[in-house]
Protein 1
Amino acid sequence: IVEAYGDGARRAKEAGYDIVEAIPAVGYIVAQFLSPKTNKRTDEYGGSLENRMRLLLEIVADMKKKSDGMAVSVRISGDDLYPPGEKKGYSLEDSKQMAKLLEAGGVDEIDVMAGWHSAPVAMIQSMVPQGKWLYLAEGIKSAVSIPVAGGTQVQDIEVAAEAVASGKCDMVYMARANIADPELANKAKAGKLHEIKPCINCCRCQESADDPPVYCSVNPRVGREAEYPSAMPEPAEVKKKVLVIGGGPSGMEAARVAALKGHNVTIVDENYQLGGAMLLASIANPKMGPQMRYKIKEVEALPINIKLSTEVTPEFVKQFNPDTVVLAVGGAPKLPDVPGIDKTIVRSRTDMQALFGAKASNKKKDFLMTLALPFVSQFVKYFYNPDLFRKLLKFDFVFIKNRPALLGGGFAGLEMGELLLECGKKPTIIEETPYFGSDFGPITRWVFKKILRDHNVPMYSSATIKEITDEGIKIDIGGETQFIDADAVIPTNITKNTVLYDQIKDMVKEIHATGDGNDPGKLMEAITSGFIAGNKI
């Protein structure tokens, strides 16, 4: 192992690098030597801290020797973040002592990470506050005189700048944010902070790393650089009249790319503002709001005609007479075909979107909802603020109530369950398959499930919905009928929406169906499909 690290440093030197880093952190093999939790050796590589550090110090010495003294950095976990007791290996105070030995051993800089991958603590997920782990770097910095870098959960360049300015650390490392926007540092250096594409902290880049290429939810060129070598698309040889139907993430991305190619683009949406499904998503996920505002600014900065509060019908398309249509209408609620599905207790995605100016559901509403909708809708129109909505959800809100039953235990259901729990509601989650969260990756899935289970949220899997009543839901699990008491039933799953596509597909020469309306997914799938459609025009 020592020889391999040293040989790697030599190759890095020969390749022209200025610095090389070893990573005895997060539970990797060298980190297991450092921790008394995992190091049970009784020879010179176990026991005392000096002995447990021996392998790492030998690695550093070999790297220095074979690279002719090139700068060597070491990345350590400032705390393994295991709970105190038998499972605890080392704390920040232990890491300070490690850092002193590393400095004495010739290390030129220390990166400070948080935790071990196997620790039962959310470290990098979107619900973890930015900068939460900078205290670890600050602690290490107090123990050594060499430069110290902090990070682990920093995507905002202003958070990074404040960390350095306040003396918590000398540098900040950022990975996901640089994938979302590779020009992040250059834009910051030029003072163009408003042009930095925000990372939504979804971790899908990390989850795709096990099966390359790596992809990004907000930067669709990632993993497709060979196919799209420039961030600026090639100008179109033939300029077309393009109608984009739908102002969600997919529609906005298609409109952006098509406009950059020189097409005459009009984007139409039935809401009174752009954003589509992101308007609702930003209420559940605070990271979605900045991304939505960034996408809207991208569209508004280009010569794109924007028509809001406009319902698109076949007659509208015929009169508009486009060369190309991008259909980005969003998905339709996936409703179970059971008795009671039309009852007023059911609050579908369509009902919620009516707050933003979308066409309301045709099904009969209760008196209170009918009375409240116009007033709430007008309030939202002029005072839309996701943070305010999260606060309103703490009350007996006319749409959500206090004992909501969520139909669907996928990403949308678990995220909404966590949000409603945070708002003081008592949600129940009902999933027809045996698995919760099967439509998203393990980095975030386990955190949602742990939060919900730690708060005793009822979660029913392999459940068949039999009937919806005014008081709740009847479900069947393994042949046994159970009744779930609820004052609101919220379907969280969506399905394809092909109604308008079927009506207009023979009316236009070129049509591209994108986003949830074509293939339900999450933000990455929506933006990517819009990006590809825009490039195809």
Protein 2
Amino acid sequence: MKSWPRSLSNTKQTNIQLAALRRKLSLFIIHKEVAYFNYLRRASSEVHIGQTPMGGANPIRIQSMANVSTLDTEAAVAQAIRMIDAGAEYVRFTAQGEREARNLGVIRKQLNERGYLTPLVADIHFNPKAADAAAEEVEKVRINPGNYVDKVKTFHHLEYTDEEYAAEIEKIRARFVPFLRICKVHGCAIRIGVNHGSLSDRIMSRYGDTPEGMVASCMEFLRICREEQFPDVVISIKASNTVVMVRTVRLLVKTMEAEDMHYPLHLGVTEAGDGEDGRIKSAVGIGTLLADGIGDTIRVSLSEDPEAELPVARKLVNYILEREGHHPIHGELAPGFNPIAPQRRVSRVVGQIGGGLLPVVVTDRSQGDSRFDEQAMPDYIYIGKDDPDNWPNPLHRIVDASLWQPRQHVYPCFTVAECAQMQSCESAVKFLRLTDVELTDALMAQCQADPAVVLLLSTHHRNAVGALRAAMHRLMHAGCEAPVVLELNYQEQDVESLQLKSAADLGALLLDGFQDGVLLRNEGCESVIADRCMFGILQAARARISKTEYISCPSCGRTLYDLQTTIARIKEATSHLKGLKIGIMGCIVNGPGEMADADYGYVGAGRHQISLYKGKTCVLRNIPEEEAVERLVQLIKEHGDWDR
């Protein structure tokens, strides 16, 4: 059993007052139409989770999930301690059944005896009885609306009448309300955890595989919680696709606000992968929402050891919090702009940039760094004052305007002070480097009148995302359709920090529809690393696919094979397949759903047994694990995708 009751303290009263003040300020700022541009955390209600409350005035919490068997008490306790020592403020374990749920109480007791009071969370799928048992043992229980009562999605197109649909919701109520009552008695919080990959057939029948369906699934449970006066609720609404994830969370927040709900939010990108790709993809999705002020706890889901997730999560949160209390940004949303589901900004085509063309990658090689990665070749190279002949002729080179001469694939770059010369320049493409504060009405008019201008737009503001958002909306207000390459500058010696910061910033702007091009500068590492970051960010934001994408889940207690080794083997065999999406899933809970837009899938079907998918269709079942990678390669070849 848990060792402390829920209590009302002076700290709680203070947090409630601070949260109320934040909510009033948030509403004021929204009324003034500047919340989109200025960083301010969304006001959420406080939820009690053991001795570590979430939401309200509490800090943004970080957490991870164990990947050992919940029945292996010794291993579970040891891993929980490693996670807590690495910074975990909540530790989650899977509980497939009542036996696992009850053993969480044993794990809780042993952790308490060793002085570790960090709340434990039970992760439940398909088994409401396990949720009931877990609520008596730990501080929080996660349930999945897609499979708590409803049957999990099978990709069948079922028809429900209004009466049948309502009857299914009543069935949920009949099972969910007794669970809430158990939680009340034992002081247990809950997380309603909606996953894109596990919507029920009932939800799919009415909404399809959409953000609206995910929000509807969540709201059904939230309304029951409110009617039962159960306040200790946290929400997560996740997807592997960052575009879907961000749009869905924004839609959920708007929907809750309309019903005066302020529950705290748990953020995460499912199946983000490992290494560079996992970090960049997580930062694009989570960082975008944190920049919006949304999020009370995060999990960076990497296909690595759980302890590895926590320093990454802490770096990401700390970076976003650096913009607290920044100098106000004055901005106004452009007419027709939808912050929940932005469309790509309208721009004209200049050379290979703008319009509906793929976003370009511009690299800064003005210091003479001439090494390139063949898998991340930029579209344009800024060489500053260097001689264009020092660089490969097919590459598009950008030189300082004072040195420019008409020649193939060489374009001038002007400063704002050189705008008069820019007007008389006859280059087919003319780059204008400027900051957001230099973007005046007169300059926008000049750029609109000159069909060859491309803007290289940067900022020195501490909240770079907000400042660049404001500048982009000024362009849209002015009707200036010059393409914009977004330029961000860092000084990071640590590659991981560069990946996280640049992905959080550029990802937010790309997901807002500002997709003409990117330029990432970093003084602390080789240019080729920044190049790889840019291509990784574009891919994570679904703006430009340039390499194989691996949709791989983090390992947990449900994983049916050695996930990290398998990912490495699959990558070794398939990483040359440009633009192909391969799902690598430890089990069937989210597997077929989260990888629904993958070209091929590798899913744990049983202990050391694998099922292979082509799209949503399972084509080979229960293959021995030792044969599965070779059979996956064979499947890709059979469908003509090996020579991409």
Protein 3
Amino acid sequence: CLMINTHYICISIKRNMKRKNPSENFSLPGMSIIPGKENTGNMPPLTCSHDNYDDDYDMSDDELRMLIDEFITTKEDWAATHPEGMKCRSDEYFANLVNMISIAMATLKLPSSTPHGFEKEVAMSCAAYLEDLVSGLGVWHSFRTLHRKKYGKWLPFYDTEHEDYLLDDINIEDLKFLVWQAFCRCGQPESMIYSPYSQGVEIISNLIFDILIDSFEKAPEASRVSDYIRRVFKKGNYFELRNLAEWLVMRNKLISCPNMMRAVINEGKSLASSHDLFDESMGVYFVRSIRAWAPNTGPMGCRSSKYLAEMSRAQGFENISTLLDNIQMVNVDVFRMKEVKQKDIVLEDVSGDEYVVTKESFKTGTRFKDTKGYMTSLVKYGDRWWQNGAASVFTEDPFSKDKPFTSYNQNSKSKEWTNSVAERNGGKRIFYCKNKEEVAAILGVPDKTKPNDNVSADNYVLMLSECEGMALLQNLAECFKDKDNPFYKKRIAKEDSLGVIADGNVPEDIAHIIAENKLLPDAEMSAQQGKRFGKAIVQDNMEYLFDFFRTQNPEV
């Protein structure tokens, strides 16, 4: 198969080499450019052209071998998408399926501006979709269940309320969503939104649908993975559950963003270089542990524990599901050691709040006698807190008077504070301000902005989230059609409103207020079907789009 299709592999590789990396700016017809300055309609027609390639693909044997090695997915590559990198007898089958889909997509003459790595991302996610269904892993089920609980239907955008949509079979609507997701996440999510109804999404999905339908009855189960997942849920061990969460966030091709692991490694190295409490390996481990429970994960933009809870619930482990649903997290902070008990230690933060942390969460043999405090992350699972990842030890009181300390966890008290500000303002959660002085006045804090502050803006939207604290948007107040907003301008709103959604910084409860009260009535995206249709896509799915773009490409 690979020998016969070497021509198409070469074409696809050469095109990918010519494409720009995700960090570079480029435009692709068929997407809305944020803040909407370009409105080019839908993606141009894709062609299936077997004979009329005009690409020059001549290269040396060594170059061809190297590029094919990069293009081709091996069974080892596929095993790396499993929890713990687990190898299965089915790995070779699914690696070949990825290659088959990639080769099939090479017959489509995608525009040269298609996002870098798009074909492989689509192939990997669609093969993961098939593996998930035939093996009963439950990841896709968890996404659909969470979406149905919140929005009353199985998927965003597409009609799934018909007799041909089957939860345990291949569905064209599922594939359309996966292709749309790959388009968004292989580019720059904060500056692009592709239409889920573009002709490109339709053509690619139909091509892959035929391949997966033919493979559905033949595909072997990844039984080692499914058995492992069930054992983890049955035991309910915190660290094994965290490993599953890490898998979803960083390696599972249905939930994770492309390049997540690379972003984690870079962030860990950066942490180590800027902080003498961590070496490089500890820094990477620390970041991985925190990202495992990241609050904005996957296509629902929720904590990874929510996906795990639905997976566990589907297998009958309701008690574990309840614990996962109620996970709480302190991302990173410094704590003073207050008390050492037989099974737990008591830590307190700079504000005096106490955390009873189980000794099980520390390395076996850890001595607490001379420890005065830790810099670490904490997760509440069940009735106790667990030290999450690496913990840097203080041998002196971190809060001593001769060593003034400011909490690393800037949002540790933000919920209580922002809720008090909202209560002081009659329960109002969204404010429109001309300058930082007005922002400071609403918050009841002194404004310390210097006159030459280079981050000042023409206007601000202040958002007080009940669950996430304070958030601030700059230069976007013109988009909000609100009786309390003096800045609204319809002409600007038509261009920039999509940017409010794609910004990724609007908290979940504030997004609900915006959608429910229709505060962004001019938000629309480019659509081949016309402006009215493009507007309906956004208006009918606004809250979900907020969810989706709350999870941004980790490298942006």
Protein 4
Amino acid sequence: RGVAMNDNIVLHLESIVKTFPGVKALDGVQLDVYRGEVHALCGENGAGKSTLMKIIAGAQGYTSGHMYVNGQEVVFHSTKEAERQGIAMIYQEFNMVPDMSVAENMYLGRYPKKKIGPFAMVDHKTMNEEAEKWLKDVKMSFDPKAKLGTLSIGQMQSVEIAKAVSQSAQIVILDEPTSSLTDNEVEALFRIIRDLKSRGVAMIYISHKMAEIRQIADDITIMRDGTYVGSWEVKDISDDEIVRQMVGRELTNVYPPKEDYRTDEVVLEVQNLCSIHERSFQNCSFKLRKGEILGFGGLVGAQRTEIMEAIFGMRNIASGDVLVKGKKVTIHRPKDAIAEGIGMITEDRRGTGILGCLSIADNVSISSLNQYLEANVMLNHKKIEDLVQENVGKLSIKTPSSKTLIQSLSGGNQQKVIIARWLANNPDVLIMDEPTRGIDVGAKYEIYQIMIDLVKQGKYIIMISSELPEVIGMSDRIYIMHEGEIVDEVIRGTDGFNSEVIGARMMLGAGGAEHAEE
């Protein structure tokens, strides 16, 4: 492709170093992004991907190195300066205001104005017309006056992309853009990406999903531990090689080997549980047995998360019973569930998982502080620190200090902190909702191993996953949900325990088996 600074290179990074107190987050990173191409960026959580993208988008400065846009060296001091150079970043957690309209979100901070006498007022008519034009430009005809919060996650993402297009973005950074999307929404996103490519827009695409990278990306750069590993054309590198370069070692199996610890002893039983909302889960019954990982499969909207949140006291139920080790329990709030030995790792890491303004130590210990009260008055901080260090060590959480704010960690390390919180609390039953969402293949393996070890130690696990290979690979038994009902149960080692049958039942409900066999 010629010299590094040819005319097709819209973004060139050279020897980028970023140092935080006590840690070097980036060390000599380089990157070339070509006009009209999608450049995938891969690496384990903590590899430095997000830090690098924030530097490109002007959200963070860098310690040393050089950055060029269209051949001109730039140094950004704010995201506004990056936007003026045609760079837009669409974050995994959107920076949008749900109670404002679609148009207001698109023009936040740059509203068109009109003069009424001596006053300058927001020109809503012009803003709505312009927003509608740009939405149609990405082939998403939403009402610009509608509240953003009424849209789906995928539609909100389209609004972010329309906003970037309206700002004449030359470089669009997409951070894990499909982590919360349905299959149809993913296809819509890819259509928009292909359209932007045809216009010469360059895109940096952060993802852990190999199939997506194969489908949408032209080039790939791999990072490891804050350093640059290498860049390839996607067609020239295999999936196995991508994984090897990411983790720095061979990863021969996606799932760790597991022994069979299954017994007939029922530790959690749910009987005819019904939501107060008619369109949510209804008449759901299931059993969790000792020694198994119990999986819940289903499409987005199947109500798997909702039923688990009800068991954990986060949602109200109209009727039904929950039994723990044969004893009927009353759970109105999470505190009640925790008292009964039930813990839950929620799917929304940012919204209901981490406490972003607190440290790693605070996030790990917060659900088990009662154990470290002395004379019911003072906390034993040394014991708390020992607890934190033990659990941070177990999960190989990459951090300079337990006092580091959790919001400064990568998504995968944040997820590990949440798991460490529950390990510290020592629950009997651990509900894990999408435990590996947004986590790289190496960290996934570590979490799978933790799950297997917990079962070996006598803990009981329920896992929800939208990744069919994952729920099949890790579960001993799977309940399949469809439109709020449990439509089937499949057991490892039986004929129905395969992706064709399970996938058909997830999509079609109880009649899916017949379709799968045809």
